[in-house]
Structure formats: structure tokens, C-alpha cells
Amino acid sequence: MKKIFQVKLWKKTKSLAKKEAIDGYIFILPWLLGLFIFTVYPLIASFMISFTDWDIFNPPSLIGIKNYTTMFKESDFWQSIKVTMIYSTFAIPLGLMVSLILAMLLNLKVKGSGFFRTLVYAPAVISGVASSLLWMWIFNPDFGLINFVLSKLGIDGPQWLLSPNWALSAFVIMSLWTAGGSAVIYLAGLRNIPQQMYEAAEIDGANKWQQFTKITLPLITPITFFLLVMGVIGSFQIFTQSYVMTNGGPNRATLFYVLYLYNQSFRNYFMGYGCALGWILFAIILIFTLLIFKSSSIWVYYESERGK
Amino acid sequence: MNQKEESRMVISNIQNWIKTKRGQELLHKALGLVFLSIIILIILLPLFWMLSTSLKGRAQTFAFPPQWIPNPIKWENYPKALTIMPFYIYFKNTMIITLGNVIGSVLSCSLVAYGFARLRFSGRNVLFIIMLSTLMIPYQITLIPMFILFQKIGWVNTFKPLIVPGFFGDPFLIFLMRQYFMSIPRELDDAAKIDGCNNFQIFYKIILPNSKPAIILVIVFKFIWTWNDFLAPLIYLNDASKYTLSIGLASFQGRFFTDWNLMMAASLVVMIPCLIVFFFGQKQLIEGISTTGLKG
Q1: Is the pLDDT of residue B292 over 90?
Q2: Among partner residues A23, A116, A237, which is closest to B138 by beta-carbon distance?
Q3: Residues 140 to 199 of A: which have CB under 8 A from any B CB?
Q4: Which of A150, B31, B36, B86 is most buried, by CB atoms within 10 Å?
């Protein structure tokens, strides 16, 4: 009896690694199942649907690549690309600049900087419909906060969300309100820069501006890189603001890509076309991310390169 | 004459002091602080403007120049705004969906993160990289097939499509948790193993109790994301009785688009739970974000 028990114990020890592996798969099972149900399956389905004409109510009919070819003839499609591109071109670099300035100010060793950090970050947690409504009111041409402040400076403010020329600028300004989110990431990067580098530069006679361009900027490029990638992914997926504040108007001036996708899929029920739009969105994001990755060897400074 | 001389002396003394290194540093700090205060005032101004508008009478909102402190203060805007739309129902719906997601995420993300952080199995690294790369896939591409699937199984117009996916982990949160679990000393696991604990016991007796900051981080992130989510509830919920606060607010805007005082009151109330959760978990949230940013 005792012998059998010992043999069992020995076998158990031997199979411990196997057991750990089985446990491993059990632990990651939720994500693994989710990967197939919520990513792999819909990706395949979306790809197939994108070659059909389907309104959900009737059976789908195969139409080949027609969804993709008609897309390039749609002026709304090009408009949505243009709007999203222009928005990204301004919102992403401006956002990076503002967050870096904020981070540098938060990096001053003053009392209560933790409290300031919290305040700066706060707008980033209230994005959504509520903040869209707030900004609609702020941009109200006659009674809004912005035009009131401008009138104090003697400027006759524009019509903002009601003007095709200004509506997109309003979206960019609004996006800067949440720059605190990235400022916090920059701040962590600034705190990682060894103080001795600045001291050495000072001994060599470098002024503050030189220290900024020669030490601070290069050393935080990995963070700029990360924020740039996240910024591109995020700005191509803007939806709530444009749906709530302008619904794409006036005169399609704020027809963001995902709003166009939503309108085509869930207002007009062009499911096949919507899936094709989804794939083009994915392709655009991939291309930009790859471009940023490819270019990174030129401008991103990595710790491991030091001393090379 | 004498006084003038004296003030000139004081000024030149100050000028000399500013030229010293310590003086320079203090001056920089002071200027920075002033600048920072101005920026923080600008950041807070929209919120103050919101609060101010929410306490005005309707006619007062259309006064120019605007009044900062409303007179009289109309507290009754709040009960009014919250009864014009079925606020209580929307609040309850949003809470159910949000709490469901928070519970689902804490459970699933911590389990998966433990698997990736502590257990050895073949294909682990490849799977981990696959998980991270799914972060690049835009949600919109899977939206239509998921909608069609949920419609086929009769889940459209229920909370299920908004809650159930939360129980299958979120790549970003799993990543954050895994990083945290890796920082817990392995000796703790080994000690428990010697005491005869299996992996599941180690997970909930050793790892979870030592991971409070990471759990708080997941709670705060998931709460804020789900609470503010708009596209998914917009697509899946048709019945007004099933609406979330986001959807309710958006439709409220359509019907009462000139009642800015009521709209601001309602929006502010909708924001408050997120702000409360943020202020409770802000330390973990900000630190968590900072560290991932650095690793990315």
C-alpha cells in the first residue's frame, strides 16, 4: 500500500511541468476563448461580408470587390478620409506639444505637484457624450465661453461648430483639453532622465534651451513614439464627438471616418460596405503605424544605444 | 531723493541675486508655477462654466456678457433635469453594465495575467505577442459581424452584448496586470508551494492579496471606459427603457437643445461617478499609465 503511494507521488513530481502547462492554459483560457469569439471569428466574418451586398434582413449576395471599388468613387468616403487626416495632422502634434509643456511644468519640484497632476489628468476621464455637450455649449457662437473670452480680447469670434471652415478647429481645441492624459506619461519620462546630464551640460556652458533640445527632447523620443502611435490609432477612431456635436456637419466638415462607417452600416444597413470600410480603416492604421515604426530608427533614441 | 536712491539699491540687489544660480533656479520655478497655475485655471474653466450654467435660469444662460455666479442660484435645475429624462432608469442600466464589466475584467484579466506572468507552457510568448498585437485591430472592424452574431442569438436589445465580452479579458489590462504580477517576488509563491498550495491557491492566496494597486487600476480603467462608452450601447440598445446615460444624454440633447442649463446639469451629474472613481484611484491610475508608457 505504502509503495503504491510512493510510486504515485513520484509520477506526480515527474508530471509537475506538464501540470503547470495545463494550469497555464486554464488560466489564460478566458482570453484565448475571447480571442476566437471576439477577434478571430469576426475578423474572418468581416472579411467575407465585405465581398457581399447585405442589409441583414435579406440573404447576402456575393458581389466580389465591388464594395471596395465603389468606395473609391464615393465623395463622402474621400471627405471622411480628408476630415480625419486634417484633424490628425493638427490634433496629434499640437496635443504632443501641449502635453510636453504640461509635463515640464508638472516636473518642477514644487509642493502639491501631485495634486496638480490629478487636476491636469481629470478631463481625460470625462470624455464622452457629457463632455461633447459641454463643448457644444462652450463653442456656442453667441453665448459660449470661447467667444466671450475672445470678445474680451477684442476679437469677434467665429461661428465654430456652425461654420464649415471652423468646425474642425473646434474639435482640435477640444482634444487639447484632454492632453493631461499624455502629459502624465511624458512626466514619467522626464523623471527618468538622470539629473547629472543637465549638470554636466551646465558645466559645459549649455543654456536652458540647448539643454532642452540636446538632452530632454532626444531622451523622451521613445515616449513621443509611443504617444504618436497611440494618437494615430485613437484619432482614426473618433466617433462620439462628431456624432453628438455636429453629426458630421455643417456641410460634411466633420464627417469623421468612423461616423461615415456607422452611418453606412447602421443607418443605411450596408453591412458589406461597412465591413469593407472597417478593413480600409485597419489598413490605414497599419500603414501609419508601420511608417512610424520604420522611421523610428532615425529619430527615436533608445537607452541601449548609449555608449555605442 | 533719498527714497529713490534706496529703491534703486534694492532693485540692483535683487538683480544681483537673480544672477546667482540659486536665484535663477527660484525664478524659473516661480515663473513655471505661475504658468502652471494659469494652465490649470484654463483646464478647470470649462468645468466651472458648466457648473455655473447648470445653476442659471433659462433666460440667464442667454445673457451676454455671461454671469459667472448665477443670481438667483437655481438648484431646482438638477431635480428638473433628472426628471425630464428617466434618469434613474438610465443610471441603473449604466451601473449594471459598468459593474458587470468591472467584475468580469478583474476576474478574467487577473487569471490570464497570472498565467502569462507565472506559468510555463509552450507557446506562451507567441500568444503574449499575439495578444499585444490585437491592440492594433480597430474595434469597428469586428463591430458588424459581432452585431450580426448577437442578433442571431437574440442578444440585441439586452445588456448581454455589452457585459459578456468583459468576462473574456482585455489585452491592455491583462498586460498591465502581468507587469505588476512579475514584480511580486517569486519566493512568496515558492513558500506557498512548499506548504502544498496549487497554482489556483497561490493565485488567490498570494498574488491577488498582493496586487491591490493593479486591481484598482483595472477597476478604474474599466469603469471609466464602460461608463463613457457610446458606440456599443448605441448599436445594441433600441428600447428607451434600456438606454444608458450616454445614449439618454445624447437623445436629451436632441429634444431640449436650447435648455443649456438643464443639459449642463444632467451632463455634470453623468460625469460625477467617473470623477469620483478617478479621484479614489488616481494614484494607481496615473502610476500605471506612466509605467506602461515607458515600456511602450
Answers
A1: no
A2: A237
A3: 140, 142-143, 145, 148, 151, 177, 180-181, 184-189, 192
A4: B36
Of A24, A33, A274, the CB nearest to B121: A24
Are A239 and A275 part of one and the same domain?
yes
SS3 assignment, position B156: coil
Please indicate, yes or no, if residue A56 is contained in any of the structural domains. Answer: no
> Do both A41 and A168 map to the same domain?
no
Check whether residue B271 and residue B168 sit in a common domain. yes
Does B92 contact chain A (CB < 8 Å)?
Answer: no
Quote the pTM value. 0.88
Cβ separation B264–A129 shorter than 8 A? no
pLDDT band at residue A180 using 50, 70 and 90 as cut-offs: confident
Query: How many domains are there within chain A?
Result: 2
Closest-CA distance, B131 to chain A, in angstroms, reads: 8
**Chain A residues with beta carbon closer than 8 angstroms to that of B263:** 133, 137
Q: Which three cell numbers stand for residue A65?
A: 470587390
Distance, in angstroms, between B256 CA and closest chain A CA? Answer: 12
Question: The domain containing residue A220 runs over which residues?
Answer: 68-305
CATH (domain of A250): 1.10.3720.10
pLDDT(B234) > 50? yes
SS (H, E, C) B1-26: CHHHHHHHHHHHHHHHHHHCHHHHHH
pLDDT tens, residue by residue, A72-115? 999 999 999 999 999 999 999 999 999 999 999 888 877 777 88
How far apart CA A233 and CA A282 sit, in angstroms, is 9
B184 touches chain A (CB under 8 A): no
Q: How far is CA A29 from CA B116, B206, B208, in A?
A: 11, 21, 18
Percent of chain A with pLDDT over 90: 47
Check whether residue B45 and residue B185 sit in a common domain: no
Q: What domain range includes position B19?
A: 2-54
Give me the residue label for grid cell 493593479.
B214
Q: Model confidence at A11, in pLDDT bands (50, 70, 90)? A: low
User: Which helix (H) or strand (E) element contains residue A61?
Assistant: strand A61-62
B144 and B291, same domain (yes or no): yes
User: What number of C-beta contacts closer than 8 Å exist between A and B?
Assistant: 279
Average model confidence (pLDDT) for chain A? 88
